[in-house]
Fold this sequence. Notes:
11-stranded mixed beta sheet, globular
Amino acid sequence: xxxxxxxxxxxxxxxxxxxxxxxxxxxxxxxxxxxxxxxxxxxxxxxxxxxxxxxxxxxxxxxxxxxxxxxxxxxxxxxxxxxxxxxxxxxxxxxxxxxxxxxxxxxxxxxxxxxxxxxxxxxxxxxxxxxxxxxxxxxxxxxxxxxxxxxxxxxxxxxxxxxxxxxxxxxxxxxxxxxxxxxxxxxxxxxxxxxxxxxxxxxxxxxxxxxxxxxxxxxxxxxxxxxxxxxxxxxxxxxxxxxxxxxxxxxxxxxxxxxxxxxxxxxxxxxxxxxxxxxxxxxxxxxxxxxxxxxxxxxxxxxxxxxxxxxxxxxxxxxxxxxxxxxxxxxxxxxxxxxxxxxxxxxxxxxxxxxxxxxxxxxxxxxxxxxxxxxxxxxxxxxxxxxxxxxxxxxxxxxxxxxxxxxxxxxxxxxxxxxxxxxxxxxxxxxxxxxxxxxxxxxxxxxxxxxxxxxxxxxxxxxxxxx
Length: 467
C-alpha cells in the first residue's frame, strides 16, 4: 500500500547511495553532495522495484516522507543538525504506532486501527530528524508464522524467498537485508529482533529490558517485551539505539566504537548448542571460527557453561503465554473474529497455565538471570549461537506452527542486552551469533561486535537482487 504523491516529474534517483552506510550518507547530506529528498526518492523507487518480491512493507508513507525530507534538507541548510539520523529513512514494525497509519499487527481486527499519535520511539526518531518511510511486516500479534492466512502475506527472506525470516520482526530484517533501508525498529519478546537477524544476515540489538520505552508499541508479554533496532551494520544499530534510548556521551552505545578488544574477557557458551543433535555442523564450525577470530583480535576466550537451555526455554514460554493470554483474554472472548486462527490458538494456550506454574517459571527465570550475572561478573561479554540451523524452508510453517531451534528467549526473561549479527553462510543462507552483555552495557557488546564485523566480510555480503 502507498499514499503515493502525485506531482511534478522528478529526476531519476541515484540508487547507489542506498548501499552507503548512514555515516557516509550523513556526510554527503551535510556537505551538499546529497539531499534527503533525493535519498527518499531513491528509497521509494527501490521499494517499488523490489518489494513485490520481498513483501517487507505493509504501507509506504511516501507523501509524508517526501515532506519530512524537504524539512530535513531545509534544517540542514540552515545549520540545524539533529544528529546522525537527520534526513535518513527508517522503517517501523507494524506493532509500533506511527501517527496517521494503521497499526495492524497483521490481525484481521486491526485493519483500520489508525494511530492518533506516534509511539515514543517514533517521536524520538522524528525529533532526531529521521524520515519514517513506512510500516513493516510482522507475524500476527508477534506470535507465530509465517502464515499465508494473515491480513497481509508473509515477508520473504531475500537470501531465499522459499525460506523463513525467523520471527515476527520479519519485515524489518527483510527491508534491511534486501537493501530497501539501512535501519529499522522492531520488537523482541522471545527472539523476534534476533531470529530474523540470524536468518536474514543483518544486525539486531535487543537492548536491556526497559532501556527503550515501549509506549505506543503493542503489548505481547509485558515482562519480556523489548523494542530495538535492526540495521545493516553494528555501528548503524548502535546509533539507532542511542536515538530511541535517549543515550549520549559515555552512556551511548556508540562511545566504544572502534576501540580494540585486546584484553577483554569473552565467555564462550558452547555448551548451549555444541552437543545438540539438531545443530548443523556448519553452524558449530562458524561459531568456533568466530571464537577464534576474537582470540586473534586479542580477546581472552574462556569456554563457560550456562544453565540448561531447555529449562529456561520452557519457563520463558510459560511466562510469555500466560502474560499474553491475560492481556488478550477479554478480546479473545468478546471478539474472536478479530484474530486469525493460528494467533488465536497461540494466545489462548496461556489459559492452561495456572498461578503456581507461572510462579515456578518466574523463579527459574530469576535463577537463570543470576547465573548469567555470575558469568558476566568474570567476563566482559558472553558469546553463543543464535540458532542451531540456517533458515528453514517456509512451506511447513505455512501449514502449521513449527518450532525453530533458536537460543534467544532466556535473555528476554533475564533482560540482558544482546547483539545478533552474521558470522558466516551455509549453502547461501546466513548464520548468526549472539553477544550478551551486562545490564545497560550496550556499549560493550557493540564494541565487541563491531571489532568482529571490521575483521570479517560477512556484513558486506548481499543477497541476489530479485528479478
